[in-house]
Fold:
Amino acid sequence: MSEIVVDAVGHRFGDRSVLRDIDLRITERRVGFIGANGSGKSTLARMLNGLLKPSTGTVTVDGLDVARKGAQVRRKVGFVFTDPDTQIVMPTVAEDLAFSLRRSGLSKVEIAARVQRMLDRFGLAAHTDHPAHLLSGGQKQLLAIGSALIREPE
Ligand SMILES: Nc1ncnc2c1ncn2[C@@H]1O[C@H](COP(=O)(O)OP(=O)(O)O)[C@@H](O)[C@H]1O
Ligand SMILES: [Mg+2]
Structure:
């Protein structure tokens, strides 16, 4: 089980302070951040895999500083964006899932097997060759989650 430690984190966008003095130690399997729109939930989430470096303080995943070991951290931590359209890049559902594994070193056969597992898991098997951008909003979110999980992050 991974451990994420947020230590004295603050963040500013320009002269606007968005996060101040955040200390967290996360080991639970499921954690929810609840807060008003614009309160900084996504900003904090982006720090957990180094998409955003905190202005002050540090975030570590299993001891790896996300600001310095971003690539290593991103192999452990999957990430799904608020808006799935920002994450869907290939024309069809199956191609979009497979795209996540393009640098995995896995064989075509193994990639196809993982794609099929995700299609089945998220109820998208009937949409294998469906244009990804014509899925419903909820189906797009499932596809984005599938594209993150297909890489088997910790
Ligand atoms: N890249 C950015 N540049 C400037 N301001 C940003 C940026 N990203 C987020 N913000 C601002 O930071 C605040 C927190 O945003 P966010 O973390 O997305 O909130 P939420 O809690 O709704 O997920 C918002 O006021 C937002 O406008
Ligand atoms: Mg958000």
User: Anything to note?
Assistant: Residues 13, 18, 35, 37-43 surround adenosine-5'-diphosphate (ligand 1) (CB under 6 Å). The two ends are 8 Å apart (CA to CA).
